[in-house]
Amino acid sequence: MKVLHKYILKRLVGSFVTISIIIFVVFTISRMAGDPIEAYVTPETPPEIVELIRKKYHLDQPIPIQFIYWLQGVAEGDLGRAFSRGEQPVTEMIARYLPYSLELNIYSLILTLPLSFWIGTKAAIKKDSLFDHLTRLFAILGRCLPGFFTGLLILAYLYPTGWIVVDPRFTFPRVTGLPTIDALLDRDWAGLLEAIKYLSGPLITSFIGGFASNTRILRSNILEELSKDYINTGKAKGLSNDYVEKKYARRNAMIPFITLLGMRFAGMLSGSAILEAVFNRVGVGSISAAAASAGDHNTIQAFTMIYATMLVLANLIIDITYGFIDPRIRYGEEK
Amino acid sequence: MSEFLIEVEHLKKYFGPVKAVDDVSFKIRKGETFGLVGESGCGKTTLGRTMLKLLEPTDGRIYLNTSLDDESTRRYDITTDARLRKLRRKMQIVYQDPASSINPRMIIRDVIGEPLKFHKAVKGEELLDRIIYLLEHVGLQAEHLWRYPYELSGGQRQRVAIARAIALNPEFIVLDEPTSALDVSVQAKILKLLKQLQRELELTYLFITHDMGVIDYMCDRVAVMYVGDILEHADKEQLFNEPLHPYTKALLSAVPSMDPTERRLSQAEILPGEVASPSNPPTGCKFHPRCKNAFEGCDKTEPELIEYKDRYIACFLYTQSKSDRNDEKNEVNKI
Amino acid sequence: MSQQTEQQDISEETTMDDWAYRKQSLSFIWYRIRKSPLSLLGLSVIFFFIILGLMAPLICPPNSPDPYRMPKTFSRLPLPPSKEHPFGTTGPVTYGDIFYGVIWGTRYSLMLAFSITGICFTTGVIYGGISGFYGGKLDELMMRIVELFYCLPNLLVMMVILIALGKRGFWTMVIAYAILAWPGYARVVRGEILRVKNELYVEAAKSIGLSDIQIILGHILPNCIYTVGLMAAMRMGTIVLSTSSLAFLGVGFSPGTAEWGIIMSEGRNWLLQGSWWITVYPGIFIAFYVLGWTLVGDALRDILDPKERRKV
User: Is the pTM of this model over 0.95?
Assistant: First the structure.
């Protein structure tokens, strides 16, 4: 197992370096997008106070030093204040809004991936059948329509029916922060329904887009697998078509599936600003977008760090999983 | 001047721990066909490519005795000479797989024309004429000019590769298993073509193959290779009639015979074990674990390739190693 | 003597074939395109859009110095489609004529797509080319940098860049997008180059004596370019998806610009009150635009593939 350990270690170190560099880069850029002091003062603030504030937030130091102060803060759990939302500590802000995005992402994942896998494989196996054509049609359409367009259409049709809620009133206590879970925990069935309706719009929209692209990818991957020789060998050996397809093709198609899963995982803590804008949903997407517009560097850095970490982590897990599955990969590193 | 066109001295090619070519020396006479035979993975292909400096040698020297630019014939050190590009006109290679050795996106006219154009050997109108001439010389027709490689059969593609190789009137051609990938009936034709071209154009060949039958037909001298070393090197007749090295004997015994009265196949010597690994070869003589004549001392040092009677051989049965004087078995002394 | 004339005849015959050959390969490509109805559809759609974009000044003559600003028609509410306003207007805030916006939006989107793709393609090919061809430590370093870009949250960083660059407008968007998009191209190019670099015919070219540059230009690039070209074609569509999404969020373009996304951003609030035209017309245009490019991309891929498959 030593080879695998070396491989994992190498990857871990590499990831750590990558994350650090990214954060530093974003740190630098966001500080260059205008004098950060502007975030804390107004034109009327007297110069002495401006100086004081400058010193307090270390804005008079060179950027690398500022970076170190920020890192210190991170280690202590202090990500600074988000002035785009009125001086609220960033950590608080994240704690408030992140669960909503997390909820949406989890349900979207559960809904989209298994379905795309199942339908994608079925379409590939029954190539050129009506089922296949319909699937492909749906997949292409899903990709062509911009997310906000589909969302708006769904909003237009479902809002009048009451199946979408854009202004929910929750009465159950906040435990995890995820509305559906909290409602369940409180056995507040009306609240649960409300939470579901709050979810429905963005969920359906994200499902359509995600399903379209995933199914397409999976279908083409499985088609590729099916054209390989070992499938024919299996059939020649006398195994039934069904068995061959299920066991061999599906199993090998799992590999790109893992990549898809990994990428989804990476986005778990991010939000979609578009979906949130269309459905008036609370979440991390619109927060970060607002922060970007306002030049709120603390928030920007925090979200970049989160995103980069998740992405690198996801890649790491994918790589390690591949390392387990495919011995060629970890031995390949030795050259 | 020298009767030898190519001189290889202590050539080594290592890929990290893999010793593909491990201290090989030999000379090829002008006009002869020098055969290099061995099992897959013994390093013969690597040797062929390194000889033309298509791979960078790890150590050793290669000399070409020829004349450049109307100068008199002299000895050129391919490994270090700055005029390598010009020297390349004199030495060409034909690969085993014609499908991958020809750019799939070029039409035949350009495939053959490229060397001519690059070295400015012919211009304009003459260029096309010469290409057609070459095509016909290898048994193809003018209409093939406009085809893509994938539109030709394997045999035709190999003819194209040969045409490309002789385009610049080289003196030396490395033929790396040129017929191994072809159907047997086509093999015979290509071999005949090669012999004919050799006569007409006064070519010298290094013929690499694993097929003893082909060696018999094509070659004047033969070298037997095993895991990076040359074990025996002699005139073809002598090698076939009286193989000395145990490995050579085993190889020859395995050649099926067309004569039903010869029951050689049933007496084929099957070597125990597997081919040694070039990255972790046995100590001493690399063949000793599989050799039925092995004795004490075969595992201590590597036998040198030494002149013995009418040939060169690297085997303790026939030579004494420097440090080991074994009085019991050998009555043979170095000549 | 007679042999010489024979030779001449043959070369005359075959020189004429030079043109015939070119015609032949073109007609073959056309034949393949014709065979697939979807690729024809895609090509027609794109063709239609390009014509539309080129003819924009004729169809909707601009009446202000900046043709990309929609002409205003003041009214209390957005106006539904009518004879004067075939696609309606956007009403309060920008009061723009949607027909004008959509037509000039076509032109705008095409310009965006071509500019961005052009920059990314060129940068990607050069960067990926150097990295892939020279390999070694340089390649490692260059690819680490590319990986860095991959880890950035796209939307966020693009917005940061847009704010940093200051004024909104065409080139701001192009630069912001291109900065984040070129690594994708570089990676693909490098991958292709690595694949081709190890092919036997590259070594064969070396054995003839060709110099590095000649090998790159004559052998490596022509075999790599197709995958990257395919990627570029696909991306032409998705670029507009992204830019219009950003515009929808109000970033990068100012309201009133003739751009599909930003028109739709106004549509949201009016949608629930029944003014569907603000959302639907630009949306349909976006959908068809992306569809067209996707089909073209698929068609390209099919044209390239069977060629390889037909290898004996």
Answer: no
Q: Residue A125: in which H helix or E strand, if any?
A: helix A90-125
Let me know: does B288 contact B282? Beta carbons within 8 Å.
Answer: yes
Give start and end residues of each alpha helix (H) in C166-220: 170-197, 200-208, 212-215
Which residue(s) pair with B61 in the sheet?
A: B9
Tell me if C43 sits within 8 A of C33, measured CB to CB: yes
- 8 Å CB contact of C152 and A22: yes
Q: Is B115 on the interface with C (CB under 8 A)?
A: yes
Distance CA C230, CA C305 (A): 12
Other CB atoms within a 10 A radius of the CB of residue C197 amount to 18
Q: pLDDT per residue over C138-153, tens digit each? A: 888 898 888 888 878 8
Which of A19, A144, A288 to mutate to test binding with chain C, by most C CBs within 10 Å of its CB? A144
Residue C280, CB-side half-sphere exposure with 13 Å CA sphere? 14
Domains of chain A: 97-285 (1.10.3720)
| Predicted-complex ipTM score | 0.80
Cα of C288 vs its chain's centroid, Å: 14
Q: Which contacts (CB < 8 Å, 24+ apart) does range B114-118 have?
A: B114/B164, B114/C205, B114/C208, B114/C210, B114/C218, B115/B164, B115/B167, B115/B168, B115/C208, B115/C209, B116/B167, B116/B168, B118/C208, B118/C209, B118/C210, B118/C214
What letter does residue A146 receive in the DSSP assignment?
Answer: -
Nearest to C10 by CA among B47, B125, A79: B125
**Looking at the DSSP assignment, which residues form a beta bridge with residue B230?**
B225
The residue count of chain C comes to 312
The better pLDDT of the pair C27, B327 is held by: C27
Which residue in C153, C279, C287 is closest to A144 by CB distance? C287
A-to-C residue pairs, Cβ atoms closer than 8 angstroms: 123
Gap between the Cα atoms of B110 and B90, Å rounded = 20
* Cα B183 to the center of its chain, rounded Å: 21
Residue B176 half-sphere exposure toward CB, CA atoms < 13 A:
23
Mean pLDDT, 10 residues at a time, over chain B (335 residues)? 84 88 90 90 88 90 85 84 86 90 87 86 80 90 86 90 91 91 87 92 92 88 90 89 86 70 60 79 84 81 82 80 45 42
**Angular region, B304: left φ>0, alpha ψ -120 to 50, beta rest:** beta
Sequence-distant (≥ 6) Cβ neighbours of residue C55 within 8 angstroms: none
The set of chains that have 3 or more CB pairs under 8 A with B is: C
Q: Which helix (H) or strand (E) holds C164?
A: helix C154-165
**Residues B160-197 as b or e (16 or more Cβ within 10 Å = b):** bbbbbbbbbebbbbbbbbbbebbeeebbebbbebbeeb
User: Which residue in chain A is spatially nearest to C240 when comparing CA positions?
Assistant: A146
Cα–Cα dist C259/A151, whole Å: 19
Q: Which helix (H) or strand (E) holds A255?
A: helix A251-266
Q: Which residues of A are less than 8 Å from C290 in CB distance?
A: 143-146
Is C199 within 8 Å of chain B by CB?
yes
Closest chain C residue to B174 measured between Cα atoms?
C207
| Helix A130-144 / helix A90-125 crossing angle, nearest 10 deg | 150
Nearest of B22, B30, B76 to residue B52 by alpha carbon = B76
**DSSP 8-state assignment for residue B13:** E
Q: How many Å is the maximal CA-CA distance in chain B?
A: 73
Is the distance from CB of A180 to CB of A190 less than 8 angstroms? no
